[in-house]
């Protein structure tokens, strides 16, 4: 598994992932970057922008479902793993991948909404498989790529969306509270099964509560750790930048004895960054397709903020907390380097004591639980594309719940390698889709800019001018 994983996530995949983001950013005239403010405002706007639009859940619930599947172990465990295997500099490459990932996530979501269909059950279905099937220039190639994406997505749902999450929950709960892994596994399987009975509506409601509350709570706690360890922050930032671009470097001071090259820093930073924000995987657009919206670009901008919140906010808090804590590169009681959730817990404990460990544990549990729910929806919709059977969907829900127990009792290395491999494989058809249909994305982007944003901004300027004139009178 490790050999396959190293091949899938080799230099070619890194270039393809980041390169696609760079290409889309240039082709879209940097509009995803320039309109980030508009995107963030749209997330919290109370305007009825979806009036007349079809969909199963609100635009906000769609984003929360997508965020539920992204804000998870990658933000807490993945960042720590990247900083151990790739050095502190891996955090820089996570930021770089996220910046260009904004354009990738935007394009994915635009295509998902544009090519979505209504199933026989009355639900909306969309994602790279439908964009490939209905929009790819050469139909038979698009059909083959759509099949491969759906197959890899179903397999990935058991890895990145289930095994990894359940494993991190059981590891954190066991380390902090001493709960046996099999007990955690049973509780998780039961809770997942209960929520999945209600389908996407149930998933959207649960994620709409868990994700924003836990994200804010974890963010505040992380900022507190950074503030209390502020004396080490300048040195930590210096190590992060130095090791991101150094051919061969050994961390010192707060970086412990971590050794990494610029290639390994880039490799683990991009890999864990993509694992965290999922830009380029093609998973989040499946949730975007279910949103009630009146324009593909509107939902594209809203879903794009998932990458911003996930990596540029939450992952940064974890990374800076670790960098300023002084625990990176230290060993545990077993004589091995602290890694994964144990490293993040140790970082939070340096400032918050035992409460820090509990905060990380609760964060892992809730983030990972919501990720399991979000990825079940991705896997179910991908399976629905392959077999067109409601019975198969119900069977998948049952199997998915049972696999949660397996994930809680499986070794970390096997789980991560499997997850990384499935991530890489499902991203290949999706990236090909994005490159082939980039012209469609560009047209939708320009149409929204010319017919929605520019008139909207002109109207706001006119209103402000009218108010100023009224004030003078």
Task: Looking at this protein, list some descriptive labels.
single chain, 473 residues, Amino acid/polyamine transporter I, two-stranded antiparallel sheet
Please specify the SSE layout and strand pairing.
Blueprint: H1 2-8, H2 11-27, H3 31-34, H4 36-44, H5 59-70, H6 73-85, H7 90-114, E1 117-118, E2 124-125, H8 128-135, H9 139-177, H10 181-196, H11 199-228, H12 233-245, E3 248-250, E4 259-261, H13 262-277, H14 284-288, H15 296-325, H16 340-352, H17 354-387, H18 390-408, H19 412-436, H20 438-472
Describe this structure as you would to a colleague.
- The chain crosses the membrane at residues 12-31, 66-86, 138-161, 181-200, 207-228, 240-263, 308-331, 351-373, 394-416, 422-442.
- It comes from Bittarella massiliensis (ex Durand et al. 2017).
- This protein is an all-alpha fold.
- It has a single domain, classed as Amino acid/polyamine transporter I, CATH 1.20.1740.
- Helix content is 78%, strand content 2%.
- The protein is built from 20 helices and four strands.
- The strands form two sheets. A two-stranded antiparallel ribbon has the order 1-2. The protein has a two-stranded antiparallel ribbon with strand order 3-4.
- Strand 3 (248-250) and strand 4 (259-261) form a beta hairpin.
- It is globular and about 60 Å long.
- Mean pLDDT is 84; it is low at 249-256.
């Amino acid at each position: 598994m490790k050999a396959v994983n190293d091949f899938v996530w080799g230099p070619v995949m890194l270039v393809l992932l980041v390169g696609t983001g760079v290409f889309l950013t240039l082709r879209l005239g940097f509009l995803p970057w320039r309109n980030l403010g508009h995107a963030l405002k749209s997330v919290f706007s109370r305007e009825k922008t979806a009036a007349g639009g079809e969909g199963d859940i609100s635009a906000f619930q769609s984003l929360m479902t997508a965020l539920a599947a992204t804000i998870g172990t990658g933000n807490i465990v993945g960042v720590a793993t990247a900083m151990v295997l790739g050095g502190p500099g891996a955090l820089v490459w996570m930021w770089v991948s996220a910046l260009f990932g904004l354009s990738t996530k935007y394009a994915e979501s635009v295509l998902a909404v544009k090519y979505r269909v209504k199933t026989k059950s009355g639900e909306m279905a969309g994602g790279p498989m439908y964009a490939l099937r209905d929009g790819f220039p050469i139909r038979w190639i698009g059909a083959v790529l759509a099949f491969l994406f759906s197959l890899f997505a179903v397999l990935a749902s058991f890895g990145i969306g289930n095994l990894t999450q359940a494993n991190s929950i059981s590891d954190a709960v066991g380390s902090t509270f001493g709960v046996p892994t099999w007990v955690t596994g049973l509780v998780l399987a039961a809770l997942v099964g209960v929520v999945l009975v209600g389908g996407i509506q149930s998933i959207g409601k649960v994620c709409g509560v868990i994700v924003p509350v836990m994200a804010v709570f974890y963010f505040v706690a992380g900022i507190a750790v950074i503030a209390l360890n502020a004396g080490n922050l300048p040195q930590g930032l210096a190590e992060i930048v130095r090791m991101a671009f150094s051919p061969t470097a050994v961390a010192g001071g707060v970086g412990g004895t971590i050794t990494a090259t610029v290639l390994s820093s880039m490799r683990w930073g991009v890999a864990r960054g993509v694992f965290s924000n999922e830009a380029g995987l093609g998973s989040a657009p499946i949730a975007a397709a279910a949103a009630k919206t009146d324009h593909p670009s509107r939902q594209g901008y809203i879903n794009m903020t998932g990458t911003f919140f996930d990596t540029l906010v939450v992952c940064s808090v974890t990374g800076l907390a670790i960098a300023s804590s002084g625990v990176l590169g230290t060993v545990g009681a077993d004589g091995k380097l602290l890694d994964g959730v144990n490293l993040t817990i140790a970082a939070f404990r340096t400032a918050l004591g035992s409460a820090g460990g509990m905060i990380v544990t609760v964060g892992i549990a809730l983030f990972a639980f919501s990720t399991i729910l979000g990825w079940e929806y991705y896997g179910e919709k991908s399976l629905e594309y392959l077999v067109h059977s409601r019975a198969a969907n119900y069977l998948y829900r049952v199997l998915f719940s049972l696999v949660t127990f397996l994930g809680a009792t499986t070794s970390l290395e096997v789980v991560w390698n499997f997850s990384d491999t499935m991530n890489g494989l499902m991203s290949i058809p999706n990236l090909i889709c994005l490159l082939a249909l980039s012209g469609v994305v560009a047209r939708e982007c320009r149409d929204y800019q010319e017919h929605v944003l520019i008139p909207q901004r002109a109207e706001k300027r006119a209103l402000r001018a009218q108010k100023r004139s009224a004030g003078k009178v």
